[in-house]
Every structure is written in structure tokens, then in C-alpha cells.
Design goal:
- This protein has helices spanning 20-24, 50-54, 81-90, 104-112, 134-155, 158-168, 170-177, 180-191, 216-233, 242-250, 252-258, and strands at residues 9-10, 30-33, 36-39, 60-61, 127-131, 203-210, 236-240, 264-274.
- With 293 residues, the protein is α+β, with helices and mostly antiparallel strands.
- The chain has 2 domains: 1-77, 2-Layer Sandwich (Alpha-Beta Plaits); 79-278, NADH Oxidase (3-Layer(aba) Sandwich).
- Helix 4 (104-112) crosses helix 9, helix 5 packs across helix 8 and helix 5 packs across helix 10 (242-250).
- 28% of the residues are buried.
- Bound molecules: flavin mononucleotide (FMN).
- The site of flavin mononucleotide (FMN) has 8 residues, from strand 7 and helix 10.
């Protein structure tokens, strides 16, 4: 558990002793004494703010997370299940972008949604890098393609494939080998002036996090997914990009070029631009693979 050491403050006079904050606390920071809520393990607090969110009389305040009382849950119209499903189904990968740049305020509005995504132990360790220079994006695209072209050329050689399979596993190598022809094709497209890697994106958002954190991959993915949904509502199309993520994590020079600290890894990225394609129909997907026990 991260120890942030900023436990809530409790007003003993206002506390009615209902104990709801104690039940809501996920890390046993609060307890009950003489029918009042008390801090029992202040240094275990992860500053999630659940205690203050549930207190019916505002007797518990976690200062860092507290907001004005008028921002009560339920004051604005909640999204109906139908509207949420529509949003989730409408969001599709967009790889065709208009030339118009995305204003900084719009990108900020998109990124602002990321911080409301959950993070393991409320670590909030999600960092963003935003690229908006088309020259830089083109340079990045070139570097990704060149790195992978070299890598897949090596991988075609049996001794290399064997060596890699020792630490990556045979199945992974088999899977990787199927991408080889894609890279050859992508190189041809690039030679024709196209950008098969980053789709001539107008902006790129990349998330990175401390690799030693509890759940950096999920934290970044959840934050970026929040961003992708907000982007959709603003008419900005996005496409997640694992080529970028994998290349950054396997290429120290590129990681340094992007300014990602050594102890961090990239856990997700997306290309962005105003949507230049219209999806007219929703699609169907496989049924969930669930085993009920
Ligand atoms: C983790 C992840 C990585 C992806 N990487 C790429 C990528 O490198 N290039 C690309 O064009 N699309 C990429 N995609 C987009 C997927 O191909 C796409 O989500 C999938 O085909 C489903 O289509 P939809 O997003 O339109 O529903 C990625 C998606 C995810 C979730």
C-alpha cells in the first residue's frame, strides 16, 4: 500500500457515529471509539476520499480530495445505461484524421478525464507526454518503423528466434513472427509517403508510469481509455497504438528522446486527430467468454 500519510480530519462534534466512513475506508485508516469515528492507522491512508464522500453530515474531510459541497454526486443528470452503452459502442479506432490541429485546450480537456480513472492503491502514478508537432510525430513514426524492420529481420534468423524464445517464450515468438510481413508492407507504404504507423496523427498522447508501482499497466490503460471516451464526445478520433508502446520499451534511445525516465515504462499511447471518417453503423462483437462458478 502506498503510504501518503494525509488521513482525513474528523469533527467529533459533528460526527453522529453512524460508522459509514469506517465501512467505506478500504485501508483500515478509520475505526470507532466511544461511538465516534477516529483515526486508527493514519499512515495507511491512501487519500481515496471515500470517507468524506460518504459522510452524511460532512464531519469527515480528507482535505486533498474534498470538493465544494455543491458538487454533490447526483446533482447533474447521470448517464443512462443506454447512453453509456451507445458511447462505448460508438467509440471506434479512428486512423483517418483531418489536417486541422487539435487546440491545446481540447487536449487538456481530454487528459483531464484521465485523473478520474481508478489507480491501484490510489497511487495516481500516471504521467502523460503529448506530441503535437507533426515533424516530431513523423520522426517518431520513422523511428518505430526502422526499429521494428531491423528487429523482424533478425527474428527471421533461426538462432535469433531461438534465443528470444528463451526469455520471451515460444508462443510469443510464433505470434511475433506473424507481424513480420506487416512491417515489410508498412515500409513500402512509408516509401510511398504514407504513415502506416502513426496514421499522420495531429497529436499523440503517451502514458508512462513507474514500473515498480503496483499496477502501472492497468492505471495507464484505464486513464487513457477515459481520455479516449472524452475524445469521442469532442469529435476527436483516437487509435491506441501498441507499436509505439512496445518500441519505446525496447529502445533506450527512443525512450530518452521522448524524455521518459529510466525507471518508467510506457503503458499505452494513442494517435489522435479530428475524425475524417464516419462510422455509420454499430458492430457486433463475440459474446463474452464467461465461466460462471
Ligand atoms: C492495446 C491496443 C493496442 C492497439 N494497437 C494498435 C496499433 O498499434 N495500430 C493500430 O492501427 N491499431 C491499434 N489498436 C486498435 C485495434 O486494432 C482496435 O481497437 C480493434 O481492431 C477494434 O476496433 P475498434 O477500436 O474500432 O473497436 C490497438 C488497440 C488496443 C486496445
Amino acid at each position: 500500500m502506498s503510504k501518503l500519510n494525509n488521513p482525513p480530519e474528523i469533527s467529533i462534534e459533528d460526527c453522529t457515529g453512524c460508522g459509514i466512513c469506517v465501512k467505506a475506508c478500504p485501508v483500515f485508516t478509520l475505526g470507532m471509539k466511544n461511538d465516534k469515528a477516529v483515526i486508527e492507522h493514519g499512515d495507511w491512508c491512501v487519500e481515496c476520499g471515500h470517507c468524506g464522500s460518504v459522510c452524511p453530515v460532512n464531519a469527515v474531510v480528507q482535505k486533498k480530495t474534498a470538493v465544494a459541497p455543491e458538487l454533490t454526486v447526483g446533482k447533474t443528470t447521470p448517464v443512462s445505461p443506454e447512453a453509456l452503452m451507445q458511447l462505448l459502442r460508438e467509440r471506434r479506432s479512428v486512423r483517418q484524421y483531418k489536417d486541422d490541429p487539435i487546440p491545446k485546450e481540447v487536449i487538456e480537456q481530454i487528459i483531464n478525464t484521465g485523473r478520474y480513472a481508478p489507480t491501484g492503491t490510489n497511487s495516481q502514478r500516471v504521467h502523460y507526454i503529448v506530441l503535437t508537432s507533426t515533424d516530431e510525430i513523423d520522426e517518431l513514426s520513422k523511428r518505430i518503423l526502422n526499429f521494428n524492420a531491423k528487429f523482424f529481420k533478425q527474428l527471421e534468423k533461426k538462432p535469433f528466434a531461438y534465443l528470444f524464445s528463451l526469455f520471451m517464450g515460444r508462443r510469443k515468438i510464433q505470434e511475433l513472427l506473424t507481424y513480420g510481413p506487416t512491417i515489410v508492407h508498412a515500409k513500402k507504404q512509408r516509401d510511398k509517403g504514407e504513415d502506416p504507423m502513426l496514421h499522420n496523427a495531429r497529436a499523440i498522447i503517451l502514458t508512462h508510469a513507474e514500473s515498480w508501482d503496483g499496477s502501472p499497466a492497468f492505471n495507464c490503460a484505464a486513464a487513457l481509455y477515459h481520455c479516449s471516451l472524452m475524445a469521442h464526445t469532442l469529435g476527436v478520433g483516437v487509435c491506441f497504438n501498441s507499436w509505439l508502446e512496445n518500441t519505446v520499451n525496447n529502445n533506450r534511445k527512443l525512450k530518452a528522446w521522448l524524455g521518459i525516465p529510466k525507471e518508467n515504462k510506457c503503458y499505452g499511447s494513442m494517435t489522435m486527430g479530428y475524425q475524417n471518417i464516419k462510422y455509420r453503423h454499430l458492430i457486433e462483437r463475440n459474446q463474452p467468454d464467461v465461466e460462471w462458478r
